[in-house]
Amino acid sequence: MQHALSKLPNTGTTIFSQMSELATHHNAINLSQGFPDFDGPSCLLKRVDHYIKQGNNQYAPMIGIASLRQGINAKLQRCYDFQADPDSQITITSGATEALFVTISALVHVGDEVIVFDPAYDSYDPAIRLSGGCPIHVPLLPPNFEMDWDRIRNAVTSKTRMIIINSPHNPTCQTLTSRDLNELYELAEKHDLLVLSDEVYEHIVFDGQAHQSVLRHKALAERSVVVSSFGKTYHTTGWKIGYCIAPSHLMAEIRKVHQYVTFSVSTPMQYAIADFLQETPEHDQQLPAFYQRKRDHFNRAMSSSRFEFTATSGTYFQLMNYRAIQDTTDTEFALWLIEHAGVAAIPISVFYQTPPTDMRLIRFCFAKQDARSTAQPRNW
């Protein structure tokens, strides 16, 4: 019998699955994995039911139904003053993770280097390796996790093909500035680099900020692929419906891979989202205030604890420093927190190739009903 020769020998089950399983085992409050514990808008759910009963239950077009792609284009114009061709520059995908995977698979070749910023969402590195590329990890360092552009410039070589950015950033909760986009454009233009911009939390930014999408920078958008997620925006992560935007010549290559990975995405849900986009465009405009209330509610409850923190500027996560509670590694503390306090959180070091040795940070998800996110932990 032949034994499988692993293409990802150092990759195991994701930290999100591990912590959720431990939360279930210990009957803990699960503030680890990034999903809401409340449902999407009722009118959106009713539209899904409508289209199922209308018989829209067969394959959708590979690139996504036309009305949804047109609705996305209208949203891009409204939010970023960006015009995309719905037929050649927008593709509906099975969640943002599929969009990331097919983009990397289509555009990264054997021997190419791809710059990722640690702590990084854990799907980037495996996708690069599976494509024969080499991930180059550039650390973002606490407490501010800002982009060190001198360090980034030094990481670029003749083999660099792509830079992957993520803003609002998971797991550090930081957001890029317009200056960062200008720096990124100058670097990408000088070295003829592609940019993959993971913007799934685009509408979850706080304190009056405007999300700095690469689509706001027209010249940068010409060499970029932007990925987003209806699951994050509409509280429906289990639907796994995302999309990507790219110049036509890049999108043609992305679709070649997409058609053999997923082919098409849930038909009735696409029609429902298309209707919701057209009829309720104010939803994404209301999202910052909706989640800022949850952020502030959670942080007020945590202010009497020994955790130290600065209010997050984006995403529905909050980093907290536990140095005043324990002087252990973050993975050890996360396990202790589940077992002794009955709360599940995510350690930050697992998102680094080489984590800072003295970092004492964990990530909580506050996309929860208020009673759950501030429930009294055991033995606190």
Structure description:
By secondary structure, this protein is an alpha/beta fold. The protein has 2 domains: 15-40 and 283-373, Aspartate Aminotransferase, domain 1 (Alpha-Beta Complex), CATH 3.90.1150; 42-280, 3-Layer(aba) Sandwich (Aspartate Aminotransferase, domain 2). It is built from 14 helices and 12 strands. The chain is globular, with a radius of gyration of 21 Å. The mean pLDDT is 94.
Keywords:
380 residues, alpha/beta, Aspartate Aminotransferase, domain 1, Aspartate Aminotransferase, domain 2, 2 domains, seven-stranded mixed β-sheet, three-stranded antiparallel β-sheet, globular
The stretches of 5 or more residues where confidence is low (pLDDT under 50) are none
Order of strands, main sheet, comes to 2-8-7-6-5-3-4
Percent helix range: 25-40%
**CATH level 3 topology of the largest domain:** Aspartate Aminotransferase, domain 2
CATH hierarchy: architecture of the largest domain: 3-Layer(aba) Sandwich
Pfam families: Aminotran_1_2 (PF00155)
Protein name: Aminotransferase
InterPro entries: Aminotransferase_I/II_large, Kynurenine-oxoglutarate_AT, PyrdxlP-dep_Trfase, PyrdxlP-dep_Trfase_major, PyrdxlP-dep_Trfase_small
Keywords: Aminotransferase, Pyridoxal phosphate, Transferase
